[in-house]
Please model this.
Amino acid sequence: MIRYSWVIALLPFVSFLLTMFFGKRLPGKGAWIGMLAVGAGLAMSLAVLGHFVSGGAPYEASIHWFTIGAFDFELGEYIDGLTAVMLVVVTLVALCVQIYSMGYMHGDRRYVWFFAVLSLFTGSMLNLVIANNLFQLLVSWELVGICSYLLIGHWWEEKENSDAAIKAFITTKIGDVPFLIGIFGLTIAAGTTNIQGISEQAAAGAIPTVALTAGALLLFGGAIGKSAQFPLHVWLPDAMAGPTPVSALIHAATMVAAGVYLVGRMFLVFENAGPAALNVVATIACITMIGAALLAMVQDDIKKVLAYSTISQLAYMLAGLSLGPAGYTPGLFHLFTHAFFKALLFLGAGSVIHAVKTNNMSQMGGLRKHMPVTFWTFIIGSAALMGIPPLAGFWSKDEIITAAWSSGHHVVWVCAIITAVLTAFYMTRALLLTFYGEYRGEAHPHESPRVMTLPLVVLAGLSAVAGFFGASQLGAIFAEVVHLPGGAESEPFNYGMALVSIVCVGLGVAVGYRLYSTWREREPLLALGPLHRVLANKYYMDDFYMKYIVKPIQLQLSSAVNVFNTKVLDGIVHSFAYAARGLARLVEVFDRRAVDGAVNGIAQAAGTTGGMLKYLQSGNIQRYAVSLFVGVAILAVLILKVQ
Amino acid sequence: MNGHEIVFLILALAGLGAALKVVTTDNVVHGALYLVVALAMVGGVYLLLGAEFLAWVQVLIYVGAVVVLLLFSLMLTKAPIGPHALDNKQKGLAALIGFGAFAGLGLLIADAFEGSVGAPPTTTADIGASIFKDWVLPFEVVSILLLAALVGAVVIARKDDDE
Amino acid sequence: MISLKLVLLFSAGLFAIGVYGVLARRHAVLVLMSIELMLNAVNVNLVAFAQTFKDVTGQVFALFMITVAAAEVGIGLAIIILIFRNRETINIDEVDEMKW
Model:
């Protein structure tokens, strides 16, 4: 089965083509094609995971694609534990989202296209995780970027949606530039694009540290863009303009995780690079963690709360990875669990939005009476996110906190703790505002149809139990599957740290409850005064980018280039034209005056001469005779002289 | 200076004098008559030089025919009787040219030619032999020319009364 | 016998007088007469040379010239008569229709 892992990635591409071309004519508008493909993929992925759970070895296979100069490009798959876990995550969440979308997107103006692009995305993401070389990874990376753009802008008739799509695309593209350079650098340094090849050389010290550090940092640039870390995080909140299933699949569980996956996949490069590489990762992660959590506190839009939460949690994962070998497994474990509960939370939010027709929590309230299934699954998801045992988030967060403490990265530890408090706070706030109190809006909320609540239940179940895969008390299966080469290292469970994290969570919940258990007209956080304003304006970062980067380019740079183009370049061309015209005029004058003048002058001279000579013709023969004789005389003299 | 030369001089001077009178006289008919004298003198010169036949032809044709012709035309064109001014405006220039011509020719002659004339006189038989042996073609052509001139003169001068 | 120079001088004199006459006389017939003088001068020249070099060709040529002169006088006079018939004048100065 593992040999055919590439089929898992291929099936969604096929379903994309089939849905796009034939979807309209099929019953159910072709949504089930995608589901079939992903479902089959899920089954195969579980089989592959099973291979690793039972202690199987990684597998690699490839075919030669093309050669440029000294570099061979291949198309291949590298399946290890990490890949298997990612395959399961992606296919499972994708399947839930597709089922959910049948209900959520019902009657949408571009229903078939939506499902087609969902399939395309799924296929690209799967291709990303099985890629065995940086080039294939890059191709998939860009493909998921395009799908994200297409899906964020699904309702592009409204300008804010198309703006958000462009913002997302361009911001991630800015991160892709260092990513590309990093790929080039590493490929040249290692002589191959193959990830395993590069990693082995890095571990063996065959690549100079400078090259590794530079390569690692440049690759991380791409991760910053894709995983919405500071300073390229600005696109993710705006991306909430897309349909909620898209937010759930792409911007919570899978695409944004690609950055984390990249760091994990290239971990040997990061590990063997200079200390700068992982330090930079840690710094960015810490800043993002706390910054995003603070921003989540002041949002009114429920999806934006979740978006900032995602940014914060991705930072958590990267912080985990930045701890070095000790943090490898914890960071990726958090990736695993986060996918489930974040997708759940988004789908739940979608269910709420579907019912009350608004995203704003200030117009919600008391929905637990109207939407019980949504409510209970949402609670489970929130608790998992906050890190309340025995739900999934607790195990993964706790591992990261423990690893931070025990590997001596105290700054990271402090940040993680603070973030845990903040996370608990803002999720409590969100919960209370949305589901408790009295309903403040004008719509008629009701529970969503079964097709939407079923995935919620499934994901809730997973959020509950997924943690047990990594629990060391239960054999730490996750660590068995996902570990650095050289065997699994699993820490024994640190009860002290667990207590610390539970206390933090409790603190956050308590404060949240205190402030929001009863509805107040005025947002309590406004008491923070100027700090609230800064947070509400997202640290003025969007304004900063707009004022100092976008507008200068859009207005000044473009208009400067335009002026240069029209005045200078066109001016040069025009001046040639003017010169030619001037020359032509000169030539015309010359032609008219000089040439024509000469010709006319000659004619006139002939006329004048004739006019003067005509007097010779007197009509008098004898005068002619005189001239004759004189002429003869002259001739005679000349001839005689000659002789 | 022998006898021939003296006779020649008399004839020449007479001839030149007559010629001068031709070109200066005011009376046209007198001019024609002076021409007769000049031509006759020239005939005399021929005789003196020994060209018998030519002298005879000269008198016959020039004096006999040409001058008569001229007189006839004078008559037909109502020649003015009596003296009239017969010189045109370029008299001075003409005199100059004439004099210049004489001067030039004179110088040339004085410079270039030696010898004397008057060998044994040429007989008619010699001339005839030369014409009909060496110069037949020109002779024929000239006769055609005469014919043409004859016809032409008639054509030109006739009154065209059938128009 | 007779010096060649003298004969030639006579011929030259006759010629010069003829030139003067052609150029200076008003009456057309007088011009023709002057032409005759010139022709005769040439004839004298020819004959003189013929007799000097004992070549009869000169005389033959002079003979032809006489003939041609006669023809030419005939034609010339015919033209003069025609002009007189048309213009009532034989004053050459007055026959200048071809003037500019």
Helices of chain C lie at 4-24, 28-52, 57-87. The domain at 4-91 of chain C is CATH 1.10.287.3510 (Helix Hairpins). Residues 11 and 45 of chain C are 6 Å apart (CA to CA).
